[in-house]
Amino acid sequence: MDYQAEYRSKLRTPEEAVRVVRSGDWVDYMSNVCFPTLLDEALSRRRDELHDVKIRGNLIFGPIQAVECDPTREHFVYNSWHCSSYERKLTDRGLCNYIPMIFRNLVPYYRHFLTVNVAMLCVTPMDKHGYFNLSCSTGIARGIIEKADIVIVEVNEHLPRILGGFDESVHISEVNFVVEGEHAPLPQFPIEAPTPEDIQIAHDIVPNIPSGATIQLGIGGMPNVVGSLLAQSDLKDLGMHTELCGDAYFELFKAGKLTNTRKKLHRNKGITGIAFGSQDLYDWLDQNPGVIVAPLEYVNAPETIGQLDNMISINNCIAVDLYGQVCAESAGLRHISGTGGQLDYLTGASMSRGGKAFICMTSTYTNRKGEKKSRILPYFTGDIVTDPRSQTYFLVTEYGMVNLVGRTTWERAELLISIAHPDFREWLISCAEQQKIWRRSNRR
């Protein structure tokens, strides 16, 4: 087969390719660094001739020109499965709506319920066999492509080619149009410097992780920081099984901690669904036989996760109430991020022999007025519950760690207050008394 001839026959300018979009269509942009910048810019230039084009994306770092060019949303209506900090700001401006989901179910949503008129995504250059690699968005890309009426790929020369377990590529025969052009270097997300609170939280978690454990680090700054601090521990032969591969895993690899040799599933291989981080991370992932990427429908399935002994899940949250409900996606009614795979890994780690699921947070935060607020609350008033109280296990702040499994409502209140910031403990006790979940004999 002459794949190069087929490639040339499908080659279009961005402006030519986006002509297929019609008013009323559903258009899907791909996740994170596979966001199609050239196609998005070309689509935005069609603003005045299009109406009610609905766009879906997730973890896009911006700017999204189709959104920025249309503040009234008459032409383009953007929606996200999981908000990046940029998409959060769009939500604050009324320019983005969140779509509730859990990552393992995202592709089945498309398969059974959703319409995709046009899918647009960045891919690696085509190989000699006619395949484009789906790179850092493999976790969801293939399932969306299969549902799309029209598939447009934008070749990004900077994307790493990540070896796959399955569904990590799309063939030229499955593509309608190909777009080329110069791209800026990939966005960089190095690990932030740890705070004293981060370091204390890591110190509390590390003694509960055995050598040979498999690690999942959730989306967000704190899990990445905690993961990087594991590289300084005495742990050995750690494994990687995660929805998101960030720089913490590269740090663990450099330190000789990440070997994947003791995993019962995909031994000698780290597995992920999506990836973004520093250029060092992208270089490490590129054609690395020690890392495989696969659909999140498989990676995040609890029945997959549960096959791994000593599965350790580390995620962060925004707030917890005294009943043990966890909010990881909103601050009151203000949308922040999304459910992502947190609930997937809480469930999966509980099915693992020796598995543990940790939810981390600093005990307080400072609001826009400069006021210190507790992240442990009496009860939620509008905050979105990400994890139900029935699935909450280990909760960690810089003041300690507690395990809520099997605990009564009054035990949960006592345990959670014990790791709250001292400035808020008396207030929380008073609230717990009013809520009838406090035993006076517990007051210390």
Explain the overall architecture:
This protein has 444 residues and is of the alpha/beta class. The chain has two domains: 3-179, Glutaconate Coenzyme A-transferase; 196-442, 3-Layer(aba) Sandwich (Glutaconate Coenzyme A-transferase). The strands form eight sheets. Strands 1-10-8-6-2-3-4-5 form an eight-stranded parallel β-sheet. A six-stranded mixed β-sheet has the order 12-11-17-22-26-27, with helices on both faces. Strands 19-18-25 form a three-stranded mixed β-sheet, with no helix packed on it. A hairpin with a 4-residue loop joins β18 (319-321) and β19. The radius of gyration is 23 Å and the shape is globular. The model has no long low-confidence stretch (mean pLDDT 95).
Strand portion: 15-25%
Helix content: 25-40%
Note poorly predicted spans.
none
The CATH class name of the largest domain reads Alpha Beta
Based on helices, strands and strand pairing, what is the structural class? alpha/beta
Provide the CATH architecture of the largest domain.
3-Layer(aba) Sandwich
- What is the tally of helical segments? 16
Look at the structure and give the mean pLDDT.
95
Write down the overall geometry: globular
Q: Any idea what the radius of gyration is?
A: 23 Å
What is the CATH superfamily of the largest domain?
Acetyl-CoA hydrolase/transferase C-terminal domain
Largest sheet: 8 strands, parallel
Q: How far is the N terminus from the C terminus?
A: 77 Å
The neighbouring-strand order within the major sheet is: 1-10-8-6-2-3-4-5
Number of separate domains: 2
